[in-house]
Amino acid sequence: MNIILVDDDEMVLQTIGDFLTRRGHRVRTAADGSEALRLMTEEMPDLVISDIQMPGMDGISFLKAVREQFPDLPVILMTGYATVETAVAALRSRAYDYLKKPVRLEELQACVERVERKDHSEI
To answer: Where in this protein does the record say 4-aspartylphosphate is found (predicted)?
Structure first.
């Protein structure tokens, strides 16, 4: 899968990016929502994985911008500050899934596999 990973934490980009790359995915990284939106115009991803707490455009605003341009693109949101309010906002904005940081890599892989199965079932 072609994945865009969005987080302002370089260590998260490296750890999750390496994990997904080792599993055969093509991963491009962005430090914020604006950069991720630019990457999407260059090449459409199959999946976006984004942090919620970022400088500038936060993850919920980013998700809303993605929904305006790419209504069916799966977006998984991650946060180190999980609250009921952010979970509700994410789901109302049609996040594919919502993961709490530190992200368990097995849980992330299960989410990615669900997206892959959904993509294949629509073909």
So the answer is: 51
pLDDT tens digits for 63-94? 999 999 999 999 999 988 877 788 778 888 89
- Are 62 and 38 in contact by the 8 Å Cβ rule? The answer is no
Give the helix ranges, DSSP H, for 23-104: 33-42, 59-69, 84-92
Q: Is residue 45 a contact partner of residue 37, using CB atoms and an 8 Å limit? A: no
Domain ranges of the chain: 2-121
Contacts of 16 (CB under 8 A, 6+ apart): 5, 7, 49, 103, 105, 108
CATH class for the domain made up of 2-121: alpha beta
Residue 36 near residue 6 (C-beta atoms within 8 A) = yes
